[in-house]
Amino acid sequence: MDSTASASLASLWDEVSGTQPDPDLWVVIATLVVALVVVVPHGLWRLSRNAITIAHEGGHGLVALLTGRTLTGIRLHSDTSGLTVSRGKPHGIGMILTAAAGYTAPPLLGLGGAALLATGRITLLLWLATALLMAMLVMIRNAYGALTVFLTGGTFVVVSWLAGPQVQAAFAYTVVWFLLVGGVRPAFELQAKRSRGGAGDSDADQLSRLTHVPAGLWLFLFHAVSLCSLIGGGRWLLEL
What are the distances in angstroms from CA 25 to CA 31, 126, 169, 207, 240? Predict the structure, then answer.
């Protein structure tokens, strides 16, 4: 019985961690176009930005846990804003890293996803994303946020279990392109809001108060991370 279970687990791990064939170049380019279509037009971006907010707040939450803080809850709102609450020292490296993780999480997740796709690990990417979304669902503290994360995670589950290899590949590439391309826009939006005197309690402003480094320099960091991730991840996806 134990040997059968062990063999089944080993077989499952081999399936998840194994490599899958790369899609044709036209599929990679088509998925890039899809990502651009849902990010660039303002109307579609108002809807698709919810997925970026999931990654943003998930980044805050994950880094809070990794730095020893106590994560008490995450809220996602219909205006695509979000809030992650954690307990711990109100200053220090843990708080700084937690605050810095929001705007950098989507592009860095995209970069990590591009690295997995560059090695053909499509199934592993889908399963990891599903696991992260299910773990995040436990910490959601409002109905809209729970519905958003549940539907997003459910989509990954359906694609992972029911879709064929070609559909899985197209879906995975679309998701990674979306994180890379969509991860660039929020920093520019924040910069625009701050130039109009808004967003006075943004992540950049909180980091400025924590570190005494000007908020503009933190904005520059957000831009640098997102643009470098897009360039690096794009090269991996396009195999340049």
Answer: 10, 20, 12, 41, 11
